[in-house]
Every structure is written in structure tokens, then in C-alpha cells.
Specification:
Length: about 220
């Protein structure tokens, strides 16, 4: 049996059980990720360790955020996670989509179809991708990104809209860039850009990558 078969891929729900899971399992997972791999994230451990439980819960209850996890069934331990943020009103990919979505939590996508007018794509971003060191190289991140991407693809199809699905990654993070490429993401036209991170008080080179659906075989 493959390792993936011994793990469940789940969407964290917003009911009481999901909120308890978020605080008891996801929160320590996320804090450990920020502490162990600070260079991978836009946010920082020092920032999120000061979040109250209400701050954490406001993330999971934000209707623009869906968090998928690979969970060990017998103890609920999280080994890998990915969040899908959207539909976002602004199609320009943000360095910190979780924060952007918190600021616009009730705004969301506000583009409506008017007659034959051109309708903008439905925009989503992948964020918070992390696998614990002992679980790396077993396909967890790829599987979770595939699951999150399918959710975005189906949302766009359901609304008969084009899809804009992107991820912002530090240019120095070659493992993550390779991961996204293996999941169907390509480097955007703009290539590298420099972005100031107020949480780290520094500027970083980042890369915007866009999901491209494989051409259908007819
Ligand atoms: C990047 C990371 C999420 C990969 O997680 P993972 O579960 O080990 O990834 P997977 O096993 O699903 O690997 C899928 C693909 O990613 C690529 N990849 C993953 N780790 C890699 C590494 N260390 N070096 C090169 N490529 C790597 C490979 O192309 C792999 O596909 P393949 O096995 O078919 O060749 C993990 O190393 C991690 O958590 N790193 C720290 C946090 C981080 O960088 N997050 C991304 C922020 S944008």
C-alpha cells in the first residue's frame, strides 16, 4: 500500500469539529512550519504566535479560504497542507493572499455577467503549502495542490468562466518552483518581481506562476 493510501486528504470544515481540528492540529502544524522554514513564507512565526484563537478561527471561517490537509487517520496529525484562496476580486496575484483575503473577506469576486460583455476570469491563489520534513518526497504536496486546483477548476466551470489560478513563490525556493511546475503551473509573463514584505521589513525576489490546463485530447 502506498504511503498516500494510509493518509486522508481532507478539506477542513467550518463546523465545530473542523474548528477544533484547526486549533488542535493545524495551528501547531502551521507554527512549526513558520519556525522551521521561515524563508518559504510571507508571514512569520513571531507574527502568528501572537494570534489569539479567534484570529486563527477567523481564517478558517473566512469564506474565501479553503484549507486542504493530508491527515494521519489514527491521531489526526497533519503532515501536509495547502490553502486555496478565492474567488478574489483582484486578479493580480498577491504576495500574501491569506492577509488579502482577510481584508476582503466578505467582498470576494464581484464580477457579474452582463449580456455579451467580456467576463473576467475567476481568480484563485494557492497559498500556505507545506509538508513536514519527515513526510517530504512522498507526493503529499502534489496531491493537495491537485485537489485544490480541481476545486478552483470546477468553480470556474460551474460559472462558465475562465480560470485564473496562481501561486507566488520566492525565486530562491527551487523545490517549490519544481513542485508547482509538476502540478501544471508555468512562470508568468512578468517573470521575477521584487516585493516588499512588511512582516520581514525586507524586499524579496518572487515569481508568479499560473496554472495552465493541459490541452484536451480529442
Ligand atoms: C516544497 C514542499 C512543499 C514539497 O512538498 P512534498 O510533499 O515533499 O512534495 P511532493 O512529494 O508532492 O513532490 C512533488 C514534486 O515537487 C518537486 N519537489 C519536491 N521537493 C523537491 C525538492 N526538495 N527538490 C526538487 N524538487 C522537489 C518534485 O518535482 C516532485 O515531483 P516528482 O516527485 O514527480 O519529481 C516541501 O519541501 C516543503 O514543505 N518545503 C518548505 C515549505 C515551502 O517551501 N513551501 C512552498 C512555499 S511557496
Amino acid at each position: 500500500m502506498s504511503n498516500l493510501a494510509r493518509w486522508r486528504i481532507e478539506l477542513i470544515s467550518t463546523d465545530e469539529e473542523g474548528c477544533n481540528f484547526y486549533l488542535n492540529q493545524y495551528k501547531p502544524f502551521r507554527l512549526a512550519a513558520l519556525r522551521r522554514d521561515p524563508d518559504a513564507f510571507g508571514s512569520t512565526y513571531d507574527r502568528e504566535i501572537n494570534f489569539t484563537n479567534d484570529d486563527w478561527l477567523s481564517r478558517i471561517k473566512n469564506p474565501l479560504v479553503k484549507t486542504f490537509v493530508a491527515v494521519r487517520p489514527h491521531d489526526g496529525r497533519v503532515l501536509s497542507a495547502t490553502s486555496l484562496i478565492g474567488p478574489l476580486p483582484n486578479p493580480d496575484p498577491s504576495s500574501n493572499p491569506l492577509q488579502a483575503s482577510a481584508e476582503m473577506r466578505n467582498g470576494g469576486d464581484q464580477h457579474h455577467k452582463h449580456g455579451n460583455a467580456q467576463v473576467s476570469p475567476l481568480s484563485f491563489q494557492i497559498s500556505g503549502v507545506y509538508t513536514t520534513p519527515e513526510a517530504r518526497g512522498q507526493g503529499f504536496a502534489k496531491e493537495l495542490i491537485k485537489t485544490a486546483s480541481e476545486q478552483a477548476i470546477n468553480s470556474a466551470k460551474g460559472q462558465d468562466r475562465q480560470l485564473s489560478l496562481s501561486v507566488v513563490v520566492y525565486a530562491s525556493n527551487s523545490a517549490a518552483i519544481r513542485l508547482y511546475k509538476s502540478c501544471g503551473f508555468v512562470v508568468g509573463e512578468g517573470g521575477f518581481r521584487s516585493s516588499f514584505n512588511p512582516h520581514k521589513n525586507s524586499s524579496f525576489e518572487e515569481l508568479v506562476m499560473h496554472y495552465r490546463e493541459p490541452p484536451s485530447i480529442s
